[in-house]
Write a structure and sequence with these properties.
Length: 384
């Protein structure tokens, strides 16, 4: 009998070996070809990750304005962080909503975002998006299909939701310099929406055993680094909740042959920045915050200025010191950012300090939250 772990490993092995042919059958762009070895040995790589991109009504209107009233253009919105994102070897985003049919897009509570978001993410330099979220099932299986189709057309890979069972069992593997990075993604909930009865694999649910099983299968099939994106946590809460802390501890404690099964955890969903923490020797970002936010309000309708605050996580991985060893994070950084609702732009706060004391206070507030669980002692620094 073939276990689910062996099934995933088998599928991933085929993807790594066959490349374009297999990926075409799974509706995914082909894997990059092998890189020539360096005369000085393997080099490291840099990974950048950002938070939620929820297209609320205000964001949709801004994108329409930036397109001159003809369609939607999300590229100007993200231009302020393009240099950080595009300079990384691999950049990961979180597409927390599904794309609509081409009619009038809608925002909260059931999203139907313009598919042009995908082109904006690609133009900014993102390589892959996690697509498992509480809104993955806002339009059922058709919403998932439209979203993944649009990301494919834009050249952005994806993890966390699927159009076929085979796709659900196929790990997303990205080339990052000399390394192969497996991007896995899951959500803690689907906002009460049921999985399609005939497609229980359509969205990855954050079951601990499944995550470990998938991570081990990806490693067994050749992934050098395993990154897990998790849509989890309590909305509007800066401190990680008990579920986040418990799951982070158990996932980072899981090892195979003395090597951790998960190398990095990236959290989304809280809509506000949360702490970074090194847990069992592995970096965990509990919450990156919303990279794009259209004036976040609480459940009573009171505007929450933290909704426009977020971070980019930047992790520089060094190659193993011995064959079969772990790719270690040699440098961990966070870049504080803010979505200026009035201007409709993402702002790198460290580069915008000339704007005045208000910008500095927002930057410092984000820093305090990010470092609130002792990450500075483990080497986390603020970048730009």
């Amino acid at each position: 009998m073939i276990t689910r772990s062996r099934q995933v490993a088998l599928v991933l092995t085929v993807v790594l070996a066959a490349g374009a042919a297999c990926q075409a059958r799974d509706h995914r762009p082909p894997e990059p070809g092998p890189l020539a070895p360096s005369a000085t040995g393997p080099r490291g790589f840099t990974l950048v990750a950002s938070g939620d991109v929820p297209a609320h009504e205000a964001i949709i209107e801004r994108a329409r304005y930036d397109a001159g009233g003809a369609g939607y253009d999300f590229r100007p919105m993200l231009s302020g962080v393009r240099s950080v994102v595009d300079s990384a070897d691999v950049a990961l985003c979180h597409m927390g909503t599904v794309y609509g049919t081409g009619g009038d897009p809608t925002g909260h509570p059931l999203f139907a975002s313009p598919s042009e978001v995908a082109r904006g993410l690609a133009a900014t330099g993102y390589d892959s998006c996690s697509t498992a979220s509480g809104h993955s099932l806002d339009d059922g299986a058709e919403g998932i299909r439209r979203t993944l189709d649009a990301l494919d057309r834009a050249g952005v890979r994806h993890a966390g939701s699927a159009r076929t069972e085979r796709e659900a069992r196929t790990a997303t593997v990205l080339r990052a310099g000399p390394a192969r990075v497996a991007h896995l993604a899951y959500t803690d909930a689907a906002d009460g929406l049921p999985l399609p009865p005939d497609e229980p694999w359509a969205v990855g649910l954050a079951d601990e055993a499944r995550i470990v099983d998938d991570a081990r299968a990806a490693r067994e099939a050749g992934a050098d680094v395993v990154v897990v994106s998790l849509h989890w946590g309590t909305e509007g809460q800066e401190a990680p909740d008990e579920r986040q802390i418990a799951l982070a501890r158990s996932l980072t404690a899981s090892t195979t042959g003395g090597r951790p099964d998960v190398d990095l955890i990236l959290g989304t969903h809280a809509h506000v920045p949360q702490a970074y923490e090194k847990v069992n020797g592995t970096w965990v970002v509990y919450g990156l915050g919303d990279q794009i936010a259209g004036g976040t309000a609480d459940h009573e309708g009171v505007r929450d200025p933290r909704g426009g605050q977020s971070t980019l996580g930047r992790f520089t991985f060094a190659p193993p010191k011995r064959p079969g060893g772990r790719w270690e994070v040699a440098r961990a950084e966070f870049v504080p950012q803010f979505f200026d609702v009035d201007a409709g732009r993402v702002v790198d706060l460290n580069r915008a300090l000339a704007r005045g004391a208000e910008v500095r206070s927002v930057r410092d507030r984000i820093r305090n939250v990010v470092l609130s669980r002792g990450a500075a002692q483990d080497g986390l620094v603020m970048g730009e």
